[in-house]
């Protein structure tokens, strides 16, 4: 599935199942909440925090997919073509960081 197809699938789902888009502000709050859930899992699984019983079996991939869904939702409702935006971002990073990371002794 392409990013464009994912944006279209989210749009269709929202219109057919979700009734309508929430406001951009509501979706930004939801995105923040979902990113927090990913952070909680990462902090416990890969960091120093201890697991709570309720966190032990949480699916990290499912939580990341929730973040992606809300991000695609925000892109749709604000008119952002994420395929184009991602391509521009990769080009910017490649130009900016081409030598920077290659010459970083911490990464060797």
UniProtKB/TrEMBL annotation:
SUPFAM superfamilies: all-alpha NTP pyrophosphatases. Residues 89-102 have a biased composition (Basic and acidic residues). Signal peptide: none annotated. Residues 88-108 are annotated as: Disordered. This is Nucleotide pyrophosphohydrolase. PANTHER family: NUCLEOTIDE PYROPHOSPHOHYDROLASE. Residues 23-100 form the NTP pyrophosphohydrolase MazG-like domain. InterPro entries: MazG-like_dom, MazG-related_YpjD, YpjD/YvdC.
